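Box 3.1 A note on notation
Throughout this textbook, protein chains are presented in two layers. The first layer is the amino acid sequence; the second is a token string describing backbone geometry. Keep the layers aligned when reading.
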Amino acid sequence: MAIQIIIGTLASGKTTNLIRQAHTTGFTIVCNTSKRCRAIMEQASSLQIAIREPIPFQNFLDRRYYGLGCAGFLFDDID
């Protein structure tokens, strides 16, 4: 699997692009915090785009995504 990095300025559509990719691929978005996960779900809802529920980075590190049927991962604001 190739790694793709999306770079842009603040409010340039990086997260919207990631939400669209998550919808298209079925991949799970990984965020730095649970609060950010909720914000992404709200943004996806406002865009009327269905995505899997994002998971916090700590859950990813602890492998607490097994059983969720994750095909792959997209990372948001992991810097």
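The chain has a mean pLDDT of 86. The two ends are 21 Å apart (CA to CA).
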